[in-house]
Amino acid sequence: MAVTEPAPAPSLAAHEGILHRQSLRESAARTYARSLPIVPVRARGLTIEGADGRRYLDCLSGAGTLALGHNHPVVLEAIKKVIDSGAPLHVLDLATPVKDAFTTELFATLPARFADDARIQFCGPAGTDAVEAAFKLVRAATGRSGLLAFTGAYHGMTAGALAASGGAGDVRVTRLPFPQDYRCPFGIGGEAGARTAARWTESLLDDPKSGTPAPAGMILEPVQGEGGVNPAPDGWMRRMREITEDRSIPLIADEVQTGVGRTGAFWAVEHSGIVPDVMVLSKAIGGSLPLAVIVYRSELDTWQPGAHAGTFRGNQLAMAAGTATLAHVRENGLAERAGVLGDRMLASLRSLAADHPCIGDVRGRGLMIGVEVVDPETRPSGTDTEAPPDPVLAVAVQQECLRRGLIVELGGRHSTVVRLLPPLTITDEQATAVIDRLADALAAAERSPHRRTPTGSIR
Ligand code: PMP
Question: What is the DSSP string of 317-365?
Fold first, then answer.
């Protein structure tokens, strides 16, 4: 190996210069860069170091991509091995030993009842491309075109995925209620709320006058991520499986964000024990490099050659990094670890809520955790009444976190859910440091006298 170049010395001027040039040259549509004005130059595990020399605990993890954190040794080793072997780095969708190893490892992690009779399609490298592939697959297999998707869903930014996410688009999508305890659309929450949501879905499909023709498929996230960390109850997942199975509607589980141990099971569908017809996988399966696939029941494999093509479907480095990541998570029981630590973090955050009236709700599954920020002044004290979301305060919390060296993301309908997506390798001590910094940030944001802006001027 060549000697590693020393990282540049910390420099506030370099940091500011880069950020300034970014603001001049990059698109108005840039996202994370606006709320997180940092310039990462080095990273390891949970920690990122900026060009200004500041260090941060990264609980965004590449939007949930970095199951093993930054630059995990097994990932780096796998990448180096491919480079040193002289293997081609780009091969379209041709077979290679690296790809073969990836598929073998991926299938070994999937529920056996699914993997035993599954096919895989390598897609363009983003999650959204795999979502589009899933839609094409079920349309070709059923000869139908409409889709069922849920309130609060996020599936990506290309036309079909965006339409399924509740954005604009000319794809016919029927939107169904996703069960949620907090802000339950039926005002009930709990099991009764989930039962009512399922009943609504069923009646819509069976009512000949509901205006919903037989759909090509139903897409759901076992835990909604961008929608504000909403875990689907296991019983509701099983009900969705029954409802779709009884009506021959393919069920697509979007595990782009929930996969690879994140929620406390290797795949989040395992919590409910359901077997979907299609799984959409991306983010962590590439071990920090871009990779996206769909895996589906072989019976659905009726589409034509070239039905979903793309140049970048053969990223060998991503496959090697992904194989190493999947194997490491499996061999080290990191899914179980995420479940145990996640429960502990949720308990700590729930106990914080007693001192912080701006915490409206704490929810999550495994290391996919959300804290919903509400307006403490309109929340009647001592009650569980749902106060209005407070986007301005949520931004203040995110900024106060950053000042304390903690990177968090905001999500949810009103961007008021502080999201924690730490790597599965986070230690107990680091988890405590994350909670402590968040608690400090909440207190500082609550104290801030200037946090209010006129309605409409938020973000
Ligand atoms: N599905 C889910 C559940 C996601 O969370 C995301 C990204 N956050 C996507 C699909 C789209 O993935 P990508 O951004 O890689 O297109």
Answer: HHHHHHHHHHHHHHHTTHHHHHHHHHHHHHHHHHHHHTT-TTEEEEEEE
| 4-33 tens-digit pLDDT | 666 678 899 999 999 999 999 999 999 999
- What's the CA gap between 219 and 151, in Å, rounded? 11
Residue 290 Cα: closest atom of ligand 1: 15
Please give the model's pTM, rounded to 2 decimal places.
0.95
Q: Assess whether the C-beta atom of 134 lies below 6 angstroms from ligand 1.
A: no
Beta bridge partners of 122: 293
DSSP string, 234-259: HHHHHHHHHHHHHTT--EEEE-TTTT
Q: State whether the beta carbon of 126 lies less than 6 angstroms from ligand 1.
A: yes
**What are the φ/ψ torsions at residue 373 (nearest 5 degrees)?**
-95, 125
**Ligand 1 centroid distance, CA of 131 (Å):** 9
Pocket test for ligand 1, best of 256, 285, 410 (most atoms within 8 A of CB): 256
Domains and CATH numbers, the chain: 1-18+29-42+359-459 (3.90.1150.10), 76-331 (3.40.640.10)
The pLDDT tens digits of the residues spanning 106-118 come to 999 999 999 999 9
State in Å, rounded, how far the first CA of the chain is from the last one.
Answer: 46
